[in-house]
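Fold this sequence, please.
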Amino acid sequence: MRQFRYHTCDVFTDRRFGGNPLAVLTDARGLDDRTMQAIAREFNFSETTFVTPPADRSHSARVRIFTPGGELPFAGHPTVGTAFVLSSIGATPGASELVLEEGVGPVRVRIDRRGGQVDRCTLTTARLPERLASIGKRARLAAMLGLHAADVVAPGEVWSCGVAFTVIPLGSVEALERARLDRERWLQLLGEHEGQKVYPIARVDDSTWRVRMFAPSVGVAEDPATGSAAAALAGWLAAHEPATSRGTRHWRILQGKEVGRPSEIALEADLIAGTPSAVRVGGRCVMIGDGTLRL
């Protein structure tokens, strides 16, 4: 029997039991894919990460990310949370930046400290946002979310920074709160589509957006905080907010209220001619617990 240490934390929040929970196995050497998947199902969080030594010795670690339903090449809350755990337990002493090898490529994470403790972790995406498709069927998108056709105020667009999401702009926060994913309609419209993950959004003010994320294809009914979706959203925001053509744009992305786990994601994009040249996603985390798996 072998023992594997793990830590759990809540990501994109400054309070316990907010944000998105994450389990991190800090030394997963010797675990095969099937066992990693079984462990992810056992924790049943949106994601569980498995840390092993990096292929490139100049990097900090290799990180594999599993949902209850499968492996992802990149995800925001697992990246930020894993960096937080490794930095907090002293696995990367004093480092102000980690480079985590993920399926999407090396992901850099800035570590900010306050009073000797990790205060905030901010990743820079390995890939820039890319628009993959447009979905003009507003009435069907609305019906999929249990909403009126008028609640969807623009076509859906599929954006990705390594993981694809269908961004669905809604006319109000009230409509966002009413949304309920109809799985049958979802299967008919997006079940075989590259934009299977559903990301309805609603503007609060010029720099704040409320969002939700549904991903039944990977076993996540509704995610409390989705950093990879926020990263992809930077592309949509830059494309639909032409007033800022150059410089750094900042947004607050609020998520999770509807599932009782409010989160806040800090999103930044460096813009050149209205197009992102770099995208950063960051936030705070709270350590929750640790333990040992006996396998």
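The longest strand covers residues 105-114. The mean pLDDT is 96.
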